[in-house]
Design goal:
Distance between the termini: 36 Å
Order of helices and strands: EEEEEEEEEEEEEEEEHHEEHH
Structural class: mainly beta
CATH class of the largest domain: Mainly Beta
Largest sheet: 9 strands, antiparallel
CATH topology of the largest domain: Jelly Rolls
Number of helices: 4
Number of domains: 2
CATH architecture of the largest domain: Sandwich
Strand content: 25-35%
């Protein structure tokens, strides 16, 4: 058992039409930390994907995963819902052509290389959705046209989202020049709320975090290298924890690598609140999130390189043991009052024993 052709305007347009609602396939969702009290909000909505029940090859449509441009996508045409056919697939880790062996990943994993890139988003690979969405009070789960709701029917809005996954190089003994893949909390279209890049540099694997924390220039990325010189011979684990607080400029994002807190920053909410393009194209409110986007793209127009690395085809990174969760955290002492603390958790997902402990958690933060 495992542990647990696009149009460029001011921003890159989505390749996929939003005229059809996404189909939800069965997905295994479990409630963790099941110390239930008197409110459903006290449960953690959490899912774990190990890929062992997936079929090899095409990702799209398996267990609520979406990958319109992944393996098996048809050739590009004028009516294509994708901009490219990317090197994204469910791989056989034990195939004779694969020279890596990571027992933590068992037989099946998600494999991605950036042999092919594009400036598009909604045709990339998206994980299954959590039962609930996460975001601040006005966060939007619908597409800009309003025709698609990316949330699962019956879900409620939570203020905390976190995701944790393991990744490893498929070429442990050497660098794969130019290899880079980005993971982002998302909802299924162009809208993202954060950005973590995994790259292979000469001195080892590197993790880079991008935030948009400057209200005066909310369209700009601020990049931070949070981990480098990571050993290619072993898998590494990344966790992103997001607390969404009502209003601009105050979300809290934590990035962990191999269990250690490496960076404390913020989300991309300022882009949606302040940037002209963000307000025009996304309605002036931040998106809700309920899944992860794994993207091999180019953002050169935003100052982020994304050149394709053709030599990585058939190789790249393997990803596994993806855990996603949403729940309600205490963000103010007012939220703890009366019986409010009973439906809240701290940022580690732990329940409060009483209102005083809830108050202390907010004061500490």
């Amino acid at each position: 058992m495992k542990p647990w052709p696009c149009v460029f305007l001011f921003v890159v347009a989505s390749c996929a039409s939003d005229a059809t609602a996404p189909i939800r396939a069965p997905v295994s969702t479990i409630s963790m930390l099941g110390d239930r009290r008197d409110a459903d909000a006290s449960l953690i909505d959490s899912s774990i994907t190990t890929f062992e029940d997936f079929s090899f090859g095409v990702i799209d449509g398996q267990y609520d995963w979406k990958s319109l441009g992944g393996l098996g996508a048809p050739a590009i045409s004028l009516t294509s819902p994708h901009c490219a056919v990317y090197d994204h697939e469910i791989t056989d880790n034990l195939a004779s052509a694969n020279f890596y062996r990571f027992h933590e990943f068992e037989r099946r994993s998600l494999r991605i290389s950036n042999a092919v890139t594009s400036g598009c988003y909604s045709d990339q690979t998206f994980s299954s959705r959590t039962s609930n969405v996460a975001g601040q009070a006005n966060a939007q789960s619908r597409s800009p046209s309003g025709r698609i709701d990316y949330a699962i029917v019956g879900g409620t809005l939570q203020n905390h989202f976190e995701a944790e996954w393991s990744f490893a190089s498929t070429v442990p003994g050497a660098q794969q020049p130019g290899l880079e893949v980005v993971a982002s909390p998302a909802r299924g279209d162009d809208a993202r709320m954060s950005w973590i890049q995994m790259a292979d540099l000469p001195d080892g694997l590197t993790v880079i975090f991008a935030e948009r924390s400057n209200p005066a220039s909310p369209g700009d990325f601020i990049l931070s290298t949070v981990a480098r010189r990571l050993d290619r011979h072993v898998p590494h684990t990344i966790k992103i924890s997001m607390d969404f607080v009502d209003g601009p400029g105050n979300d809290v994002v934590l990035v962990f690598v191999d269990g250690d807190l490496k960076h404390t920053g913020t989300s991309w909410e300022n882009y949606y609140f302040y940037d002209a393009n963000g307000k025009l194209n996304f309605g002036g409110a931040p998106p809700a999130v309920n899944r992860m986007m794994f993207r091999t793209g180019s953002d050169l127009h935003r100052g982020i390189p994304g050149d394709a690395a053709p030599a990585t085809r058939g190789h790249g990174f393997v990803f596994d043991n993806l855990r996603q969760a949403t729940f309600m955290v205490a963000t103010s002492a007012n939220a703890c009052k009366h019986t409010g603390w009973r439906g809240l958790r701290d940022t580690n997902g732990e329940l409060f024993e009483n209102q005083r402990r809830c108050d202390r958690s907010v004061q500490k933060d």
